[in-house]
Write a structure and sequence with these properties.
The complex is a heterodimer of chains A (447) and B (443). Chain A has a two-stranded antiparallel sheet with strand order 1-2. The radius of gyration of chain A is 28 Å and the shape is elongated. In chain A, 49% of the residues are buried. Chain A has 18 helices and two strands. Chain A has 447 residues and is mainly α. Chain B is mainly alpha-helical and 443 residues long. Chain B folds into two domains: 268 residues, no CATH class; 161 residues, Hypothetical protein af1432 (Orthogonal Bundle). In chain B, 72% of the residues lie in helices and 1% in strands. In chain B, strands 1-2 form a two-stranded antiparallel sheet. In chain B, a hairpin with a 3-residue loop joins strand 1 and strand 2. In chain B, helix 14 packs across helix 18. Chain B is elongated, with a radius of gyration of 26 Å. The two termini of chain B are 27 Å apart. The relative contact order of chain B is 0.09. Classes of the chains: A mainly alpha (447), B mainly alpha (443). Chains A and B meet through helix 8, helix 9 and helix 14 of A and helix 10, helix 11, helix 12 and helix 16 of B.
C-alpha cells in the first residue's frame, strides 16, 4: 500500500497541479474549436494510456501517451496540455487505486503544463502549424518534449523514493530500464509535432492515423514481453528436466539464478546483463549431464580420471549452450564458475580480475545454495553459517566485493530456503558428493 | 522461424552463387535491373529538371532504412524505413520547398525509381563491407513494389480523377487520403506476393500456404509502414523535408521494438535447439539426432502443406522429442527409441511431455510429444498429424542416422511402408520425397 510520506507527497502534487492549472485558466483565452479538439486529444491520450506495453519486464510499462499531450501543447497551448494529461485519472487500467489515479492525473497535468510553458517561453507558435512555421517551430518543440520527459520522471522518482515494499521492486525495474524508457519517450514525443501538423491537413483524423503505427509498436512490444516470458518458462522447465537426474540438486539452478540476479541488482548491473546472468545462473551446471552418472554417485574417493571428468563439466556446459545467442558474458560465466580468486580453481586456473565478473557472481550464489541445501552426507547449513563460510572464502575462493554485495542483498531481500528434501522418488538418483560444496571438497585418491 | 533451419542446412556451398539462383529470383532481378537501367537512361537526359533537395533527402532516408534492416520470423528480412521512404517519395503530392508544385506533373516515376535504386545501393554497401548478405532479392522486391506505386500514382492523379486540375485536388486532405490509401495497399500487395513467390520456391512450400504465411508475418509491419507513408505524404505538405528528420524518431523506436521481438524469438529457438542436445551430451541419443529429426519433420510437414505456425510447433516438438529420456536411470543402448518396447516408448513420450508442459507456454508442443508413440491407425483418439510426422522422422533417423547411403534409406522407407498401422502412409510418402531430395543435395 501507499506509505504515509508518499500519501503526503501525492496530496501536495495534486494540490499544486490543481492550483497551477486553475491559474493558467485565468490567463488563457480559449481559441475557437478549442473544446472539440481538446476532447479528441484527450481520447487519444486515454487510448494510449490505457493500453501500455510492458517494457523489459512486466513491472515497467510504457505508453506513448505523451504524444497527445505534446500535440495539445502546439495546437491548443499549456492549459489544454494540462487538461489532456489530467484525463489519466480515469484511465481504464483496472488495478489502479484512487491515490495512484490522482497522482497520475496530477503528474501528467503538471508535465503538460511545464511542456506548454516551455514551448511558449521559447516563442513557439500556438495553433495550427503552417508551412511558414518550419523550421522555427522545431527548437521550442524539442525543448517542450525534453521538459515533459524531465518533469514526468522527476515526479515519478519522488514517489518511488518515498514508498517501500511493492514499489521498491518497481523502482528497481524502472531504474534498470531507464535509458530505454527515455529514448522511447523522446522518440515518440516527436509524434506530437506530426499530429499537430497533420491536423492542418486532415483535422482530427490525424489522431486516428497516428494510432495505427503506435498500436503496431505496442503489439511488437507486447509480443516481445510474451516471448520473453515463454522463453524464461521454457528454459526453467528444461533446466528442471536436467536436474531430475539428481534428486538433491533439484531447484539448484533456479536458486543460483536468483542469487546471481540479487547480486547483479545490488551492484547496479543494467537490465540486459541482469537478464543474461539470470539465464547463466540457471544453466551453469548443465554440463554435469556430460559427467557419467556413476561418477556423480560414487561414494568413495574419486580417481584422477573421475575427478578430471567432474572438472570438465563447465566446458561441457559451454559446449551445450555455445550456440545460444546470449551475451558472451553469460557463456564466460558458465565456463568459469569454478575458478577461484587465488587461481586454484578449474578449468583454466584464472585468478583475480582474470575471472569474468559473471563467473565471480555465479560462484558465490552457487556455493551459498549448495551449503544451504540438504545433501545426502550432511544437513543443510543455516543462512548465517553459510554466510560465515562465504566470508572465510573471501580472497581465496570468492571475490570479496561480490560476497559483500550478496550479503547486502540477503539482508534486504532474504533467501528462499529449498524445501526439506523428502525421500527420493524412483527415477531420481542421488549425488553423494557435491562438487559445489566448499565445506566438503571432493576427495581424490592420492597418487 | 522454421525456415531458418532449412536455409542453414540446405545451401550447397559447392555451387557458385550464380548457379544457386533459381529462375524465380533471376526473373525478379532482371526485371528490377531493367527498371533501373530505364530509370537512369531517362533521368540522366533530363538531369537539369531534377529537384535535387527532395531527391537527396528521400534518397538518404532510403539508404538509412536499408542500413537498418530488420530480421522477421522465418529468416525473412525487411527494411521498413526504406519502404516508408520509397513509397512516400513515389506518392508525394507536391514537391516540398517548391511552393506547392504538384509532383505528378513535375517528377517522373522513373526518377523515383532511380532515387530509390541509388538509395538502396548505398544503404546495402555497409552490409556488403561487413561481410553480410547484400540482400539483393529483398531490394529488388522493394524496388518493384515502389515502381508499381509510382507508375500507378501518376495516371491516377492526372487522368483518372481530375484531368487538368491536379492542384485543386489536394485542397482537401481527405481526397488525397482516399487516393493514396489504395495505392499504399497496392504497394504492400506487390511486396507480399513477390516475397511469397520467392519463399514458396525457396522452401518448396505451396504458394497458397506461402502467401497465407507471408500475410500473417507481414501484416503488423505492413500496417505500420502503410500508415507511416500516409503520415509522411500528408505531413510533407506542412512540414516539408524537415519532416523526415522529425519522423525518424518514432520510426526508429518502433523498429527497435520489432528488432527486440525478432531477437528474442531467434534466441528462443536457438535455446531449444541447444538444450535439446543435452540428451546427446549425456549419451542418451546419438549425436545430431534431434537436429536431423527436426529438419526431416519440418521438411515433411511443409511437403504436406502445413502452415508456418504449425511447423514451428512441429520443430520444437521434434527437437525435444527425446527429452523424456533424461528421467531414465540409464541410457537406452544407442539411444534408438525405435527398438524399445511400445510401453517404454509411451513412458518416455509421457515423461517428455510432462517436462515440456511444465513450462506452461508450450502446451501444444507437449501434446505433440505425448502422442508421438501412438500408432497411426487404431488409436483412439487419433494422433495429431505433427505427432505422426515426428514418429516417422524419428524412426527414419534411428534406422538411417547421418548416413547418406541410398540403399539404407530405401530399406528404411520400405520397412515403414510395410507397416501402415504404425506409420501414416501419407507421411511416409512425403518423407520419401524429402529423403530423395536430401540425397540429391549431398551427391
Amino acid at each position: 500500500m501507499v506509505s504515509r510520506a508518499a500519501r503526503l507527497y501525492i496530496t501536495v502534487v495534486v494540490l499544486v497541479a490543481v492550483a497551477l492549472v486553475d491559474r493558467t485558466l485565468m490567463h488563457t483565452n480559449t481559441p475557437p474549436l478549442f473544446w472539440g479538439d481538446l476532447v479528441i486529444l484527450q481520447l487519444l491520450f486515454l487510448v494510449c494510456d490505457s493500453t501500455p506495453a510492458p517494457l523489459v519486464s512486466r513491472q515497467t510499462k510504457w505508453s506513448p501517451s505523451s504524444a497527445a499531450t505534446l500535440a495539445a501543447v502546439v495546437l491548443l497551448g499549456p492549459f489544454a496540455a494540462a487538461l489532456v494529461g489530467a484525463v489519466s485519472v480515469v484511465s481504464i487500467k483496472r488495478q489502479l487505486v484512487l491515490p495512484e489515479r490522482l497522482f497520475n492525473g496530477a503528474m501528467n497535468a503538471l508535465s503538460g503544463l511545464v511542456a506548454g510553458e516551455t514551448y511558449a517561453a521559447l516563442h513557439g507558435h500556438v495553433g495550427l502549424p503552417g508551412r511558414g512555421d518550419f523550421p522555427a517551430i522545431i527548437l521550442p518543440f524539442a525543448a517542450a518534449a525534453a521538459a515533459h520527459v524531465l518533469a514526468n520522471q522527476a515526479l515519478i522518482w519522488g514517489v518511488y523514493q518515498l514508498s517501500g515494499g511493492r514499489q521498491m521492486l518497481r523502482r528497481e525495474a524502472l531504474e534498470s530500464s531507464l535509458p530505454l524508457l527515455l529514448v522511447s519517450d523522446l522518440g515518440y514525443a516527436a509524434l506530437g509535432l506530426m499530429i499537430a501538423s497533420l491536423w492542418s491537413v486532415i483535422d482530427a483524423f490525424a489522431a486516428v492515423l497516428v494510432l495505427i503505427p503506435l498500436f503496431v509498436a505496442r503489439w511488437a512490444m507486447g509480443q516481445f514481453a510474451e516471448q520473453q516470458r515463454a522463453y524464461s518458462a521454457t528454459m526453467k522447465a528444461l533446466c528442471q528436466a536436467v536436474e531430475t537426474k539428481d534428486y538433491y540438486t533439484r531447484g539448484h539452478g533456479d536458486r543460483v539464478s536468483l542469487g546471481a540476479v540479487m547480486i547483479a541488482r545490488q551492484i547496479g548491473m543494467g537490465a540486459d546483463r541482469t537478464e543474461a546472468i539470470k539465464f547463466a545462473g540457471m544453466l551453469h551446471d548443465v554440463g554435469k549431464l556430460g559427467v557419467p552418472t556413476k561418477v556423480l554417485q560414487k561414494t568413495g574417493k574419486l580417481t584422477e580420471d573421475e575427478f578430471a571428468a567432474i572438472q570438465l563439466h563447465p566446458m561441457r556446459g559451454l559446449e551445450i549452450v555455445r550456440e545460444i545467442g546470449f551475451l558472451n558474458e553469460a557463456l564466460a560465466g558458465i565456463m568459469h564458475h569454478h575458478e577461484w580468486i587465488d587461481g586454484t580453481g578449474y578449468p583454466m586456473g584464472f585468478a583475480g580480475r582474470e575471472i569474468p565478473e559473471f563467473a565471480r557472481i555465479i560462484a558465490v550464489a552457487d556455493a551459498f545454495d549448495s551449503m544451504t541445501s540438504t545433501r545426502s552426507y550432511r544437513a543443510a547449513k543455516s543462512i548465517s553459517d553459510a554466510v560465515e563460510e562465504l566470508r572465510k572464502g573471501m580472497n581465496t575462493q570468492f571475490d570479496p566485493q561480490i560476497v559483500r554485495a550478496f550479503i547486502g542483498a540477503l539482508e534486504r531481500q532474504g533467501w528462499p530456503l529449498p524445501d526439506r528434501a523428502p525421500e527420493p522418488a524412483d527415477l531420481a538418483t542421488v549425488t553423494v558428493q557435491d562438487h559445489d560444496d566448499p565445506t566438503a571438497p571432493l576427495r581424490v585418491v592420492e597418487t | 522461424m522454421a525456415g531458418s533451419t532449412l536455409t542453414s542446412q540446405r545451401a550447397p556451398d559447392r555451387w557458385s552463387s550464380w548457379q544457386a539462383l533459381d529462375s524465380g529470383r533471376l526473373l525478379l532481378m532482371s526485371m528490377a535491373a531493367m527498371l533501373v537501367v530505364a530509370a537512369f537512361a531517362t533521368t540522366t537526359i533530363e538531369v537539369g529538371n531534377i529537384h535535387m533537395r527532395p531527391a537527396l533527402a528521400f534518397g538518404g532516408f532510403i539508404a538509412f532504412g536499408e542500413l537498418l534492416r530488420l530480421a522477421l520470423p522465418g529468416g525473412r528480412e525487411a527494411a521498413p524505413i526504406a519502404m516508408v521512404g520509397g513509397l512516400s517519395y513515389a506518392l508525394l503530392l507536391t514537391l516540398p520547398g517548391r511552393g506547392g508544385v504538384p509532383t505528378a506533373q513535375d517528377q517522373s516515376a522513373l526518377l523515383v525509381i532511380a532515387v530509390a535504386a541509388v538509395g538502396m545501393a548505398v544503404g546495402a554497401l555497409p552490409h556488403v563491407a561487413a561481410g553480410r548478405d547484400a540482400g539483393l532479392t529483398g531490394m529488388c522486391t522493394r524496388l518493384i513494389a515502389i515502381a508499381c506505386v509510382a507508375f500507378a500514382f501518376r495516371p491516377a492523379v492526372t487522368n483518372f480523377l481530375m484531368p487538368g486540375h491536379v492542384s485543386s485536388l489536394f485542397k482537401s486532405g481527405y481526397v488525397a487520403l482516399g487516393l493514396i490509401t489504395p495505392l499504399v495497399l497496392l504497394g504492400w500487395l506487390v511486396d507480399t506476393v513477390i516475397s511469397a513467390l520467392i519463399r514458396a520456391d525457396d522452401v518448396r512450400a505451396r504458394f497458397s500456404v506461402a502467401i497465407a504465411d507471408e500475410v500473417r508475418v507481414q501484416w503488423p509491419l505492413g500496417a505500420a509502414v502503410g500508415a507511416s507513408v500516409l503520415i509522411t505524404v500528408l505531413g510533407a505538405e506542412i512540414m516539408g523535408l524537415y519532416e523526415l528528420a522529425i519522423f525518424l524518431g518514432p520510426l526508429l523506436v518502433t523498429q527497435v521494438a520489432f528488432r527486440r521481438y525478432a531477437g528474442i524469438r531467434a534466441t528462443y529457438l536457438q535455446t531449444v535447439r541447444s538444450l535439446a542436445r543435452v540428451t546427446e551430451v549425456a549419451g542418451y541419443v546419438e549425436g545430431g539426432h534431434s537436429n536431423r529429426v527436426s529438419w526431416l519433420a519440418v521438411a515433411v510437414g511443409r511437403e504436406l502443406g502445413m502452415p508456418e505456425k504449425e511447423l514451428l510447433k512441429v520443430e520444437y516438438a521434434a527437437l525435444m522429442h527425446d527429452i523424456g529420456q533424461l528421467s531414465l536411470r540409464d541410457p537406452i543402448p544407442g539411444g534408438a527409441t525405435v527398438q524399445v518396447s511400445p510401453a517404454d516408448q509411451a513412458r518416455i513420450a509421457e515423461l517428455g511431455a510432462d517436462v515440456i508442459a511444465d513450462a506452461g507456454v508450450l502446451d501444444d508442443v507437449a501434446e505433440l510429444v505425448r502422442c508421438q508413440s501412438w500408432p497411426a491407425i487404431g488409436h483412439d483418439p487419433a494422433p495429431p498429424l505433427g505427432s505422426m510426422i515426428i514418429r516417422v522422422a524419428n524412426a527414419f533417423d534411428d534406422m538411417v542416422g547421418a548416413s547418406t547411403d541410398r540403399e539404407r534409406s530405401q530399406a528404411a522407407l520400405q520397412c515403414m511402408r510395410a507397416n501402415p498401422i504404425e506409420y501414416n502412409t501419407r507421411v511416409v510418402g512425403a518423407l520419401s520425397e524429402v529423403a530423395g531430395r536430401r540425397l540429391a543435395w549431398r551427391l
